[in-house]
Write a structure and sequence with these properties.
Blueprint: H1 8-15, H2 22-29, H3 42-56, H4 58-83, H5 90-98, H6 112-131
């Protein structure tokens, strides 16, 4: 039986559910087998956390954050295309982003704020090229 070693996900969600208690939730999702998190299987733990995410709306917040990140990535990739970088070659995109003067990180490691700053930098570079 696979067990889970880190229960941060559960306790974070439990804080957002006033009136819920650990023992009742664990008892319910193990069909009365136990009230201890460490005795739950990984499958039971995951099912319980997914349902808690649905109840607390955590999944919706995560989806909104992902949409913001996706939009920022799309904007940067569009500017890279305008600049002349082949965006179908991820090695080329990462090499450009890893330059310390540009972002200093791989493309996938950039946060939404990093991407917005990078978008501004690339726009300035393109604008400077046009004036020269």
């Amino acid at each position: 039986m696979g067990t889970v070693g880190n229960y941060a996900r559960f306790y974070t969600l439990l804080k957002k559910m006033p009136g819920a208690d650990k023992e009742t939730l664990v008892y319910q999702f193990t069909q009365g087998r136990t009230v201890h998190l460490r005795q739950m299987s990984a499958k039971e733990y995951d099912a319980m956390c997914r349902q808690m995410e649905d109840i607390t709306g955590y999944d919706e917040r995560r989806r909104k954050q992902y949409d913001i990140l996706r939009k920022a990535r799309s904007g940067v990739l569009h500017q890279l295309q305008i600049y002349g970088i082949d965006t179908t070659d991820w090695n080329r995109v990462d090499a450009f982003c890893k330059d310390p003067r540009i972002a200093g990180k791989t493309f996938r490691a950039l946060t939404a704020d990093d991407l917005n700053a990078l978008n501004t930098k690339i726009r300035m570079i393109i604008r400077k090229q046009k004036t020269e």
